[in-house]
Structures are given as C-alpha cells and as structure tokens.
Amino acid sequence: MLLSIDNLKVRYGNIEALHGLTFHVNEGEIVTLIGANGAGKSTTLKSIMRLPPPEAPRVSAGDITYKGQSLLNVEPHDVVRKLRIALVPEGRHIFGNLSVMENLMLATYSRGSDPAIGKDLDRIFDLFPRLAERRDQRSDTLSGGEQQMLAVGRALMTNCELLLLDEPSMGLAPLLMYEMFRTLKQLNREGLTIVVVEQNARLALQVADRGYVLDTGEIVAEGSSEQLASDPEVKKAYLGG
Ligand SMILES: Nc1ncnc2c1ncn2[C@@H]1O[C@H](COP(=O)(O)OP(=O)(O)O)[C@@H](O)[C@H]1O
Ligand SMILES: [Mg+2]
C-alpha cells in the first residue's frame, strides 16, 4: 500500500469537513475520488499535501501514511521534495506573467542541478507538443486546455512518484478532456501512481482502476471502476441515470 488515509477527520476552524475518511492507493494504480461540489475532494488532496491553514484544513483525528510513514508532521516542501508527491491544484495556479518554460523550470527549484531535469523537460514536451511550440509564450496567453497541460507538466517536473490531480477536466472542451485523460493513462503505464479527483465521474471511471465516492466528507461507495460504473445508486447520482 503506497498511500493510506485512515479515519481522517479534518476541520476548517470549527467546521469539520472530513468525518473519518478511509481509503488507500496501491503503487501503480489510478484511483479516482468522485463526488459532487462541496463533498470534500479538494480538502482530501490538500490534506495529503500538508498545506497549512487557512486554505487547507487542520487534521483533528486519524492519519495519512505514505510508504508506511505518517505525513502529519512532514513539512509541505518535504512532501514534494523528499516524498515526491505532487499536486495539480484546482484552477491550475500557473504564473501567467511567466513563460511556459519559466513555469516548468520553477518546479525544478528543489532538484538543484539534477542532471535528469533536461530529460524530464524533453519528456513533457513529447507528452504535450503544444507546450513545446509555445515554450517562450507568456502563460496567460495560453488556452484553458494548454494551461491545464502546463499545470500537469509543472507537477511532473518535480519528479513525482505520486501525482494528485484536482478536477483536471474542468473547463476543457470534450476533445481536450479525453486527450488529458489519455495522457494520464500513458503516464500511469510508465509507472506513475495517480489519484484524480473529478466531478466528471463518467470520464474518471473510464481511466481509473478503482474509485471512491465522497459525499459530504464521507466515503459512501467504493470498488473497481467497473463496479462503480454499474452500481445503480452511483449511476443515478453521478452518471446521469
Ligand atoms: N478554506 C476553507 N475554509 C473553510 N471551509 C472550506 C474551505 N475550503 C473548503 N471548505 C468547506 O469544506 C467542504 C468541502 O469542500 P471541498 O473540499 O472544496 O469540496 P470539493 O472539492 O469536493 O468541491 C465544503 O463544505 C467547503 O465549504
Ligand atoms: Mg474541489
């Protein structure tokens, strides 16, 4: 088991947002967390990244372990640098006034003069040829889809082993959504473990191995993607019948 969330309770101030969440991710899997707006999906990812309050919650009970080690007392920069977990946040958060290349290179800051940086950059430009064509362009002039590719590329430039994505399909035209999920599948085949949070459950269940359904801070269903996609309750609530 690579990542394990055990009976996790977190709060924003006095408000509990996760009420005892339990789920796990095995090495090499794509796991999806699906659920409606406000269910606690982003909160779960922020908790794993150990981002500080107020934008992220405080853990009040339970544990988050990665490779058997508790993350609760790990600094956010060490989550990225030492444990090699990266987040593609909701809304992308790229630096619009910087070029594509500058955004990608910023993510390598903690890697020092790692000789593999050049190779990783080539790989990202292979995965996303549009980014290669636009490497010197200001990032705020990219389309929404290209900005999402840049956000994924930037996370990959940290040399992560576990990639967390928060609603990567948001705001993308259908064709670009499929392209993005195809790319995630390819990265997974090359060894990357992925947790993807989505409101677009149909799409997420097409690429994930397993999934969990989150409803107001609790897991209400879990199983293989096939099981969830054919579950009558899940179909009714999340797949449009
Ligand atoms: N920074 C915050 N401060 C206070 N409450 C928050 C904050 N972020 C999220 N919440 C609350 O936590 C709950 C879960 O939100 P969130 O994790 O963003 O859901 P989702 O990503 O599934 O849409 C919601 O009730 C939301 O209002
Ligand atoms: Mg969210």
From TrEMBL:
Cross-referenced Gene3D superfamilies: P-loop containing nucleotide triphosphate hydrolases
Record-stated family: Belongs to the ABC transporter superfamily.
Entry superkingdom: Bacteria
GO molecular function ontology, one term from the record: ATP hydrolysis activity
Key words of the record: Amino-acid transport, ATP-binding, Nucleotide-binding, Transport
Any GO BP annotation: L-amino acid transport
InterPro entries to which the protein is assigned, alphabetical: AAA+_ATPase (IPR003593), ABC_transporter-like_ATP-bd (IPR003439), ABC_transporter-like_CS (IPR017871), BCA_ABC_TP_C (IPR032823), BCAA_Transport_ATP-bd_LivF (IPR052156), P-loop_NTPase (IPR027417)
Domain ABC transporter: 3-241
Coiled-coil stretches noted in the UniProt entry, renumbered to this chain: none
CDD domains listed in its UniProt record: ABC_TM1139_LivF_branched
Gene coding for it: livF
Descriptive protein name: High-affinity branched-chain amino acid ABC transporter, ATP-binding protein
